[in-house]
Design a protein that fits this description.
Layout (H helix, E strand, L loop, with lengths): L10 H27 L24 E5 L9 E4 L8 E4 L10 E5 L13 E5 L12 E6 L6 E5 L7 E5 L2 E6 L13 E8 L2 E6 L6 E5 L1
């Protein structure tokens, strides 16, 4: 006589398997969604232009300077604030000072130029600093005295963007390309004078700037 074996049905085990399948599918859709949102703009955003009318290029050195003399100060530079590290991003006190050149790297690896409203990392292109730390920009903590968010160097790489401002531009922090689903307290970068030093910070009037090839 042939015996027929029937598998026992376990509702709890079946439910557990279904939840695992739903979780796996949800994760796949989340990754696919983030990947699709993190695609480059395909050239829809206008390129940022230097003072010669050419698009800013990845890895090329540029000086960042005020778009007019009326704002006071000169090119952007490194500031050794309070004799401590890391170094802060700031502005030379006068227009005749040299400052330091920077290089840009778009967040999207396949991009070769810097575009408006698009994330990039930026660093001062110098070989040595008194702090012996990287010169890549990042958003630091709020200052204890002014309660403004300062732009400093070293540490985890930060991402910034450039926005059009009339005949010039301004620097901003709002890394929406880096994390499209995140919510940020975005801000534009301007100059904050503390103890006679001109420091770059958010939450102050934006500094209108231009970019001059070094």
């Amino acid at each position: 006589m042939v015996q027929i074996m029937y598998a026992s049905f376990d509702p709890a085990r079946t439910k557990k398997i279904m939840f695992r399948l739903i979780g796996a599918v949800s994760y796949i859709w989340l990754v696919m969604g983030m990947s699709s949102m993190a695609q480059p703009s395909n050239g829809t955003n206008s390129p940022v232009l230097d003072t010669a009318g050419q698009a800013l290029q990845r890895g090329v050195e540029y000086y960042i300077l005020p778009s007019s003399n009326s704002s006071g100060g000169g090119r952007l530079t490194l500031i050794h604030r309070n004799g401590s590290c890391p170094l802060s991003v700031g502005q030379e006190g006068n227009a005749s000072s040299q400052g330091y050149p920077v290089t840009f790297a778009p967040f999207f690896e396949q991009e070769t130029i810097i575009r408006e409203s698009s994330d990039f990392s930026v660093k001062f292109n110098i070989t040595y600093t008194i702090c012996r730390q990287p010169t890549t920009w990042r958003l630091g903590e709020s200052d204890d005295v002014t309660e403004k968010r300062m732009i400093v160097t070293a540490g985890k790489t930060g991402y910034f963007r450039i926005e059009r401002n009339g005949d010039g531009y301004y620097l901003a922090w709002c890394p929406a390309d880096v994390c499209p689903i995140c919510s940020f307290d975005c801000g534009s970068a301007g100059v904050l004078v503390v103890d006679g030093k001109r420091l770059l910070a958010l939450d102050v009037p934006a500094l209108s700037v231009v970019f001059k090839r070094a």
